[in-house]
Write a structure and sequence with these properties.
It contains 14 helices and 24 strands. By secondary structure, it is an alpha+beta fold. It folds into 3 domains: 165 residues, 2-Layer Sandwich (Nucleotidyltransferase, domain 5); 102 residues, ATPase, nucleotide binding domain (Nucleotidyltransferase, domain 5), CATH 3.30.420; 81 residues, Actin, Chain A, domain 4. Strands 11, 12, 13, 14, 15, 22 and 23 form a 7-stranded mixed beta sheet that branches. A 6-stranded mixed beta sheet has the order 3-2-1-9-10-24, sandwiched between helices. Helix 5 crosses helix 6. The structure holds adenosine-5'-triphosphate (ATP). The site of adenosine-5'-triphosphate has 21 residues, from helix 5 and helix 6. Pfam families: Actin. Keywords: Cytoplasm.
Length: 426
């Protein structure tokens, strides 16, 4: 059966872009200017057993629905539960009113190194469950690189990255993955990853808060917000630790928990010294003598920088892996020596963890002692590290002259089977 009307070959609105992040899927049609986001998770209420998927789950969590068992279809970067992923993709595709899968093409990001079985399963879902007419697959890193090429990124030394050798770091939810590129091709044999990502950092912060302050197990959503609002990467770790020992510690902040009536989000404030008044349970600010409503607050001090520090020194919490700077060094060392200088000069960083204030500066600082003598380090940041892979994918789908050549059609898949997926050079 053939679709009538325009197809993905002539209409950008029929090229559907999906940056399939383990935390959030960023998606749109190639004709759209901004991506939409959907939480890539399913939650089950531990008491009622009610199930919430994608953004419905996100809404529930935002409204203070706790006690949920949350399951992610992607674990450690690999598709773990394809049925759950299908549930979430259904929500996405239902938003494109006139999409008609049989006339549309899906452009999808994947991790740079992936077992065939996972790639095959994804193609099966795309062609057999959803009946798309075309499929394009690429690694997140290739698309981040694509975005960096169009963006004129802000960088330490000025200029734009070379078009010949680049080193792309994606530090997202599940992991931190680095891939060197030569002439636009990823050198997979030199790709290196460490299993430290946003999920691990949030869980670590949760453990610390639950031990020191108040039990927030089962409130991961809240702890994630604390991390995103308050944590940063330090360029002087030991000095900052010393500052935290002072009586008047300028690093300490308080996160006032939301009451879900007046505030759906936690509020940040400087710590204030309160004096408890037992009878009416109100508090007096000793500085201003004013009454303040009693809201539960969590004090966060050195955790603000010691938690993201794990990206740089995972050994601190017993993870026997290199930190991000050494990961880059090890990976570059696997490449031909002639590429070395250019790779250090063209490090592109992306992914949610690159949103931490200080992330790029710290990486720049640590790379100084690892770079070969006489070479330079330049770190390029993307305008929006979270949506950069989506942006690169959109660029590719919109502007690649011969986009059709990069696509596997449903007909090809039916005739040749999984073998045809070898066409995708991730
Ligand atoms: N402002 C911020 N500061 C620090 N971390 C942030 C910020 N915003 C988002 N994050 C974190 O980034 C992570 C998500 O990043 P990203 O969207 O790159 O991952 P993903 O693409 O969904 O997952 P993956 O790369 O593992 O497939 C989450 O852990 C989130 O908490």
């Amino acid at each position: 059966m053939c679709a009538s009307g325009p197809t993905w070959r002539d209409s950008l609105s029929k090229r559907i872009i999906l940056d399939n992040g383990a935390y959030e899927i960023k998606y749109s049609a190639a004709s759209e200017l901004k991506p939409q986001k959907i939480y890539n998770a399913v939650g089950k209420d531990k008491k009622t057993r009610a199930v919430y998927a994608g953004n419905k789950l996100f809404e529930e969590l935002e409204n203070g629905h706790s006690n949920m068992q949350i399951t992610y279809p992607i674990i450690r970067g690999l598709l773990h539960d394809s049925d759950l992923e299908t549930v979430i993709w259904k929500q996405i595709f239902s938003k494109f009113k006139k999409m008609e899968e049989r006339a549309s093409c899906l452009a999808l990001t994947l991790p740079p190194v992936l077992p065939d079985i996972v790639q095959n399963r994804l193609a099966e879902i795309v062609f057999e469950d959803f009946e798309f007419d075309g499929l394009f697959m690429s690694s997140t890193h290739s698309m981040i690189r694509e975005a960096a090429m169009i963006e004129h990124p802000v960088n330490l030394g000025g200029g734009a990255p070379s078009q010949q050798c680049e080193y792309v770091v994606d530090s997202g939810f599940s992991y931190t993955y680095g891939v060197p590129f030569f002439n636009g091709r990823p050198l997979k044999y030199a790709a290196t990853r460490i299993d430290v990502g946003g999920k691990l950092l949030t869980n670590l912060l949760n453990e610390i808060i639950s031990y020191k302050e108040i039990n927030l197990q089962g409130e991961t959503h809240l702890v994630n917000d604390i991390k995103e609002q308050l944590c940063y990467v330090s360029t002087s770790f030991n000095e900052q630790l010393e500052i935290c020992k002072q009586m008047l510690n300028p690093i300490a902040k308080e996160y006032v928990l939301p009451d879900y009536k007046n505030n759906k989000r936690g509020q940040i404030r400087d710590p204030v010294v309160f004096q408890q008044l037992p009878p009416d349970q109100e508090q007096i600010n000793t500085n201003t003598n004013q009454r303040a409503p009693q809201l539960q607050a969590i004090k966060i001090s050195n955790e603000r920088f010691s938690v993201p520090e794990v990206l740089f020194t995972p050994q601190d919490i017993g993870i026997n892996e290199a930190g991000l700077p050494e990961m880059i060094q090890q990976s570059v060392n696997k490449c031909p020596k002639v590429m070395e200088r250019q790779l250090y000069q063209n490090i592109i960083v992306s992914g949610g963890n690159a949103m931490f204030t200080g992330f790029r500066d710290r990486l720049y600082q640590d790379m100084q002692s690892l770079k070969p003598d006489g070479s330079e380090v330049q770190i390029y940041e993307l305008q929006n590290p979270i949506t950069s892979a989506w942006k690169g994918l959109r660029q590719f789908c919109q502007n690649k002259n011969n986009f059709e050549e990069y696509v596997v059609t449903r007909k090809e898949y039916q005739e040749e089977g999984f073998r045809v997926l070898k066409k995708f050079y991730l």
